[in-house]
Amino acid sequence: MSSKKGGLSLPDRPGAGAGDGIISRVSSSISQSPIVYQGKRAASDAALIAKKLLKSTGKAAWIAGTTFLILVVPLIIEMDRDAQLTELELQQASLLGTPPPASAAGGPK
Questions:
Q1: How far is residue 4's CA from residue 19's CA, in Å, rounded to a whole number?
Q2: How far is CA 34 from the centre of its chain?
Q3: d(CA 40, CA 26)
Q4: Cα separation of 65 and 35, whole Å?
Q5: Structural domain count of the chain
Q6: Residue 4 domain flag
Q7: The model scores a pTM over 0.90
Q8: Residue 60 burial (CB < 10 Å; 0-12/13-18/19+)?
Q9: Domain range enclosing 56
Q10: Where is the segment annotated Disordered (predicted)?
Q11: Torsion region of 4: left, alpha or beta (phi above 0 gives left; psi -120 to 50 gives alpha)
Q12: Which residues lie closer than 8 Å to 103 by C-beta, 6 or more apart?
């Protein structure tokens, strides 16, 4: 028995295999098998690859998102503004009874 200061202690555990039961022996032999080792290694590699893939996908999403905001959104706003202006010119021309301006009809200004 090992003695510890100030309390009750359990006996020291004997060496592996000496007094262990069949379940612990089978469990230790399975956990030390090459198949389990390869499975753990494959799972670790898969987790590492998934982590790298997720990180690079996040970077790509960030680049695509910021590019969209900087280049495409202003273009969409300008096209909408131009369409509203053209519609307003057509409305004014129809109210005044004059032919629509050349720019509103699709011709050059």
A1: 23
A2: 33
A3: 18
A4: 44
A5: 1
A6: no
A7: no
A8: exposed
A9: 33-94
A10: 1-23
A11: beta
A12: 86, 89, 109
Note whether residue 104 is domain-resident: no
Q: Which residues of 13-41 are buried (b: 16+ CB within 10 A; e: fewer)?
A: eeeeeeeeeeeeeeeeeeeeeeeeeeeee
Residue 108 lies in a domain: no
The two tokens of residue 9 are 């202690």
What is the chain's length? 109
- With left for phi above 0 and alpha for psi between -120 and 50, is residue 71 left, alpha or beta? alpha
Amino acid at 95: L
Residue with tokens 């999403």: 61
3-class secondary structure, 70: helix
Express as a percent the part of the chain with pLDDT over 90.
Answer: 47
Q: Residue 21 is encoded by which pair of tokens? A: 């039961």
CB atoms within 10 A of CB 90: 14
The answer to whether position 62 is within a domain reads yes
pLDDT digits (tens, 9 = 90+) for 67-92: 999 999 999 999 999 999 999 999 99
